[in-house]
Amino acid sequence: MKPLECRAMRHKMRFRIREHLDNNGLNMLAVSEELGVNKNLVVDTIAGQRNNRRVLEALRDRYGVPEDLLFIPRKRKAA
To answer: N or C: which end of the chain has fewer CB within 10 A?
Structure first.
């Protein structure tokens, strides 16, 4: 799936991602503070406006958000 397609699909799932965080006692501010990034980066990534790999991988690996909700784009091959 291309990055733009991943963002569009994540946009559709954003409320389920937020629900998962909420069910685990987390919010986007807490995630941003733990990662040491700006809250807007986390918000925009969850909303499908950005594809920040660090945030996406943390949501999956640290916070247990199912990968099928995140639509993480494949890494680009080196030229």
So the answer is: C
